[in-house]
Amino acid sequence: MAEKIRNYINGKWVDAARGKTFESRNPADNRDLVGTVADSDATDVDKAVTAARKAFREWSLTPAPHRGEILYRAAELLVKRKKELGELVCREMGKVMPEAMGDVQEAIDMTYYMAGEGRRLSGETVPSELPNKDAKSVRVPIGVVAQITPWNFPIAIPSWKMTPALITGNTVVFKPAEETPVCATRFVEILIEAGLPPGVLNMVHGFGETAGEPMVRHPEVDVVSFTGSNPVGERLAGICGSMHKHFTMETGGKNPIIIMDDANLELAIEGAIWGGFGTSGQRCTAASRLIVHEAVHDRFVKMFSERAALLRVGPGSDKKTEIGPVISEAQYRRILDYIEVGKKEGAKLILGGNALKKGKHANGYFIEPTIFIDVQPKMRIAQEEIFGPVVAVLRARNLREAIDIANDVPFGLSAAIYSQDVNKTAVAERDLNTGLVYINASTIGAEIQLPFGGTKRTGLGPRDAGGRGGALDLYTQWKIIYRDYSGRLQKAQIDKE
Ligand code: SIN
């Protein structure tokens, strides 16, 4: 049954001001209408930002451990509703059930983790060079945060962004992806039920141009966090730069796995299957390039394509399915276009390459696991993010060449190497120019207690999730406090006569 999905502004569920709606449909069966959703514009955004601004002072003065208790209760509710939420992720986004449950688990982990930050949020206390004087730094919240999230992790990524913003005392205006508004709404409902006061968290549904961009341009928004496409991220970065807003973005990858001649090939194949075709290749960290040492290339390709040919494609709700649909018709067409590009560029298609249209696939967006070999490093299918179940295999003569190929793309999110030689993996760990490096593991599956993000055109600004350099750095600024209790004028750096 389709739900009516509304905005959440200043503690109330409301329709979009202009009364318009859009639909969210199941990508595995587009006859299934999941939600009818408020289609918002600048008027709704303005109300949400105004509410967030009004709530900021009181929320920022609420002791952080109390804010943490609310997040802790939210984590408990997520645990209780994990299955129900997983089923919704599967229905609205298309993930197979184990991955849909993993999406929710990641939000559980993140929410507990940030609840704990309520009793940490530590700064530094250092000695002063002068007697009877204290010197310390404290984290302070920045203000109103606008968050724009993607559809591929419809519960996990909102949790990466929202929980650190809230624990540090900021208020939030949230625009989830238009493909997964029902999942986002369930997550927001949980945070509200856990006890967030009105105005602290506001949600505005809609599209990038009509709701997202007015949010970013709103003068009362102090911080913007965006995950999505590169062209949009770069435009938003320009707006934020010109308006002096704090900004972070995560916009994709072209992630390689290097498979060396001494690799455990069975293990490497498992990693390449999971990284290349898991979530139908729709992870920013998907292993879309395999760079294989020439000595094992042919054997690897044979084993890999035989294993990939066995993958079962279908609705995520079917227990036997390993690869679900892709998210939308637009994405489906884009992936099929890239497959044509690969053929025209002269890469050799050895598996898949087609849409599936019959039987259980008739009303969804299903694409066969697709493998190209003889891919050259400068081909578009080796350089551009496809975000689908398409893997490009490239050949390398040695480790140096493999690393150079791996780094020779505009993105730098995740990279992996399979090798049993500790020295080779150490060189790769040092020289791969990516935010995440995996040794003898695939490119996907980052954990929330460390920052998530990348180098080059993958990202800008502090990273998402936990750990040093993670999201706490985006949502707080440092205040430095000196307290002089000597009762006389003391002058730092000035020599005494
Ligand atoms: C992502 O790629 O967006 C999710 C993180 C991961 O699987 O590493």
Class from helix and strand fractions:
alpha/beta
CATH topology of the largest domain: Aldehyde Dehydrogenase, Chain A, domain 1
Report the major sheet: 7 strands, mixed
User: CATH homologous superfamily of the largest domain?
Assistant: Aldehyde Dehydrogenase, Chain A, domain 1
Shape field: globular
* Gross CATH architecture of the largest domain: 3-Layer(aba) Sandwich
What is the CA–CA distance across the termini?
Answer: 83 Å
Number of strands: 27
Name the poorly predicted regions.
none
Just give the CATH class of the largest domain. Answer: Alpha Beta
Tally of contiguous helical segments: 15
Provide the list of bound ligands, each named once.
succinic acid
Radius of gyration: 24 Å
Record the strand order, biggest sheet: 15-18-19-14-13-21-22
> Please, what is the average pLDDT?
97
User: In what range is the share of β-strand residues?
Assistant: 15-25%
Share of residues in helices: 25-40%
Protein traits:
497 residues; alpha/beta; Aldehyde Dehydrogenase, Chain A, domain 1; Aldehyde Dehydrogenase, Chain A, domain 2; 2 domains; seven-stranded mixed β-sheet; six-stranded mixed β-sheet; 15 helices; binds succinic acid; Ald_DH_N
Describe the structure.
Helices cover 38% and strands 23% of the residues. The chain folds into two domains: 3-251 and 458-481, Aldehyde Dehydrogenase, Chain A, domain 1 (3-Layer(aba) Sandwich); 256-439, Aldehyde Dehydrogenase, Chain A, domain 2, CATH 3.40.309.10. The protein has a seven-stranded mixed β-sheet, with helices on both faces. Strands 10-9-8-11-12-25 form a six-stranded mixed β-sheet, with helices on both faces. It is an alpha/beta fold. The model has no long low-confidence stretch (mean pLDDT 97). Helix 2 packs across helix 6 (181-193). It binds succinic acid. The site of succinic acid has 8 residues, from loops.
